[in-house]
Amino acid sequence: MNDNFTDPSTPPRLVWITSPDNYDPRVQERLRREGSERVDMLRAAGFDVRIAHSCDIVPVWNGSPRLLWQKEDLLAEYAGFLVTSWSWDPAIARHLEAITRTIRASDCPLLTDGTLDPEVLGLDKLAMYHHAAALGAPVLPTVSVPFGRYARRALDAVHTELPDGPYVVKPRSMAMGFGVLKADTTQHLSSAIDLLTPGGLGCLIQPHVPNDGDVRVYVHEGKVIAALLREPDDEAYLANVSQGGSGSGYEPPAEVVELSERLARSLESDYLCVDWLVTENGYVFNEWMTVSAAYEDLPDRDRRRVADALVRYIRHRLDAGAPRPR
C-alpha cells in the first residue's frame, strides 16, 4: 500500500487503463488522431490524466499490490483509476480482472466500480436483470446459454420461456453494442449459438422487441440530471451511437425517472447511467454503466451538466479515499 497523501498544490492524478486490442488498428489510429473529448474535459478540469494500455501492465503482489508499467509502479502514488474492463477476448478479460483486483487491493479508488458488489453487478447483464427485476423494473425474459457442447440446450428453454422469434443474442459482459446479433428464426438462433459459444464469452438470449431505440438516463447523487435518446439508423436494430445510431436530448417520463433513481440508490451509486428500451408497451430495462458511459452526444447544456457531475463525482471519490499524513 502506498503511504503517499494528496498534496493540494498538485493536480489530482487519474490513470485511464484502456484495451486497444479491442479495436482494429485503423480505428486505434483514428482515435489517437482525434483525441478524446472525455480526456480533454478531465484535463481542463484540473486532473493529471495518464493513459496506459492494459497489454503493457503486469499486476504484482510483492509486499503490496503493484501495477508495473514502463518500469514504474502505477500504484506507488495515490491516483484514481478508470479501467475499460470489457473485452470480446476472454484472455484480455481475465487480464483486466487481474488489473482491477489489484487496484481494489490498494489504497487507490477504482472509479469505474461505482456500484455495490462491482465484481458481480459491474458488467454482468444477467446479474443486472435479476437485480433490476427484484426492484420492480420491467425486464425481458432472458435465457443464459450453457457452455460448449451443451449450448444448444438453451433452445429448449427458449421454446418454453420466450415468445416466438425474432431473438437477440448478446454477450453477458460487453459494451458499445459489440456482438449483439438479431436472429430471425430458430435456425438462425441455433447457428448463432454454434458460432458464439466457442469464444467463451457467455451469451444471453432475449426476444427482439420492436422499439424506437433506447434512453440513457444519467443519475447523480440520487437524482436524474439528463437523458439521451439513442435511435437506430434506418433499418438497423442497434441504437448505439458507436454502431451508427444517433443521439438527442430527451425528457424521461416520471416512471423512468423514479426507477432509475431507485436503481442508483439500491446500488449505492452516486453516478449511474441506466439504459431503457423504448417499446410500444413502455420502457424496459436494458443495462447500466458508471463513469465509462458516453455522454458526449447530449445537447450542449446537458453535456456540460453531466460533465460537471462526473468531475464532482471523481473529486469526491478521490477525496474520500485519499491517505492522510501520519
Overview of this protein structure:
The chain is of the alpha+beta class and 326 residues long. The protein has three domains: 100 residues, Rossmann fold (3-Layer(aba) Sandwich), CATH 3.40.50; 123 residues, ATP-grasp fold, B domain (D-amino Acid Aminotransferase, Chain A, domain 1, 2-Layer Sandwich), CATH 3.30.470; 58 residues, Dna Ligase, domain 1 (2-Layer Sandwich). 31% of the residues lie in helices and 25% in strands. The chain contains nine helices and 15 strands. The strands form four sheets. Strands 13-12-11-14-15 form a five-stranded antiparallel sheet. Strands 7-10-8-9 form a four-stranded antiparallel sheet. Strands 2-1-6 form a three-stranded parallel sheet, sandwiched between helices. The chain starts with 12 loop residues before the first strand and ends in a 5-residue tail after the last helix. About 2% of the residues have low confidence.
